[in-house]
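tool=predict chain=A
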Amino acid sequence: QVQLVEFGGGLVQPGGSLRLSCVASGFIFSSAAMSWYRQAAGKERDLVARITSTHSTNYLDSVKGRFTISRDNAKNTVYLQMNSLTPEDTAVYYCKATTWPFGNDYWGQGTQVTVSS
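tool=predict ok
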């Protein structure tokens, strides 16, 4: 079955960096669009970054220039490099796969990112 497992969350000081990883299995990774979402306490889940099978990317405006999404199809892994973190980036970060050709969505369990001094 489809599995998405996120790694790399934690506590970081403002201005710091983290790299999240999401390891996928159970589907053809190279054909899927992969996304990172985040959900802060009491708020809706928002799309942070997305990368297609052709490596086209898009980002939430507030993270442009600070976050970078990338993928390694040989490792079935999608990454989110997060730089210049602020307390407003504190949230649970989720990985999502949108598989091809039917567009089914699958979610990881989430990883907590806390930005605090």
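The chain has a mean pLDDT of 97. The chain is about 0% helix and 50% strand.
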